[in-house]
Amino acid sequence: MPFPARLPPPAAAAAATAAAVLAAVALRRYLSSRPRAATSAHRSSSTAPAAAGATTRLVLSGKSPQDHQLLASAAGELSLEEEGGGELAVSLAPDRGGAEGFDAGAYMGALLARRFGRWMLWSPRMASTHDLVTQNLAKLPVGVVCVTDVQFKGRGRSKNVWESPPGCLMFSFTSQMNDVRKLPLVQYVVCLAMTEAIKDLCCAKGLPELDVRIKWPNDLYLKGLKVGGILCTSSYEQKFYNICTGIGLNVDNDKPTTCLNAVLQELEANSPRLTREDILASFFNKFEVLFEIFSNQGFQALEERYYNAWLHSGQRVVIQDAHEGQSVNSVVTIQGLTPSGYLYAIGEDGKSYELHPDGNSFDFFTGLVRRKM
Fold first, then answer.
1. Contact call for residues 232 and 6 (beta carbons, < 8 A)
2. Region of residue 66 (phi > 0: left; psi between -120 and 50: alpha; otherwise: beta)
3. Strands of 343-347's sheet, edge to edge?
4. pLDDT, tens digit, for every residue of 103-117?
5. Total-model pTM
6. DSSP states of 46-86 as a string?
7. Less Cβ crowding at N or C end of the chain, within 10 Å?
C-alpha cells in the first residue's frame, strides 16, 4: 500500500484518444508528490530480507454470501508479482479476526456502504496492498478493499521503501470514473471523507472529537503532527479510469509522530479506543456519500466542507524561486483551490497565483513554497 499521491499517465491503450492525451499531461502535472504508506513507517533502503520468496496469505470476506461468492470466484485468478519470488495463498473461508488481526466480522457489521468495501482481502503481512490491488484490477469487483496488519514495502517518495508496523490502518481500494477533469480531485474527496468519518465515529461513540485536518494535497494531520496520508493511482481501460486509492492511518502506533488513540487519551483519560475496523467502515460509509455528490455535481459541491477541514485558508506563504541566479521571495495569501485542484493565492501586489505540487515543496509550518532546483 501507500503515503502523498500521484496519478500516473493512463495506459498506452488510451493514448490514441484525445482524452487520454489530456490525462497524460494533466496527471503528470497535478500530483507529483507521493504519500507514504503509513505515517509511523520506518524507512528502509531495501526490501526486508525475510520477504523474499515468502508466501502472502490472503483471506477473503464479503458483506453478504453473494458478495463472498463473487470475490471467491475471482480468487483463483489473483496474482502478485514481487521481487525475489513469493507465492499467494488464498483462503475462501471468512476470517474470524479477533486478537490475531483485523476482525472482518466486526468491520462488515458496521459497514453500511453499498458500493465500497463490501469485498475485502485481508493479509496479516504483505509487501503492499496497493501493488496487490493494482496488479489485479481487472479481476476484482469495483469497490474491493485490501487490508493488511503489517506492510514491509509501502510506496514512498523518490522510490523509498517504507516498513509499516502494527497499529496502523493500511488499506487500498478501487473506484472508477470516466471524467478525466475530475480525476486529480479524487484524492481531496478521500481526505475529506476520512476527516469526517473520524469525527462522525467519535460523535457516535460519545468520544471527544478528534480534529483531524487536511494538509494539501494529501496528508492528514492531528495537533500539528502527521497521522495519515493518501496515494491515488489510475489506469485507463475501455473508456473508464480505474482508480486505486491507498490510505495509511496511525490508529494505535504513536511513533514517530502520534496516533488517534494517543490523542484520545490526552483529551479524556481512560477513553475507549477507536478500532481499525470501525474507522474503515465509517470511512466507506462516508466516502460513498461524498463520491456520489462529487460524481454528480463536481467538487464545487464539496468545497466548503473541504475548506472547513483543511489547514490553509488565509495562510500567508512565501514563494521562493530563483531569478538570474538570485533567490526571489514573494508573499502570497492562500484563498482556496483552483477549478483544476491547484492552490489559488493572491500576492501582495494583487496578482493571482496558482501553486502546483509538482516541483515544489510545501511546508505550511514555515510558510514556504520552495521551487526545487
1. yes
2. alpha
3. 352-355, 343-347, 326-337, 316-323, 368-371, 360-363
4. 999 999 999 999 999
5. 0.81
6. S--GGGTTPEEEEEEEESSHHHHHHHHHHHTT-----TT--
7. C
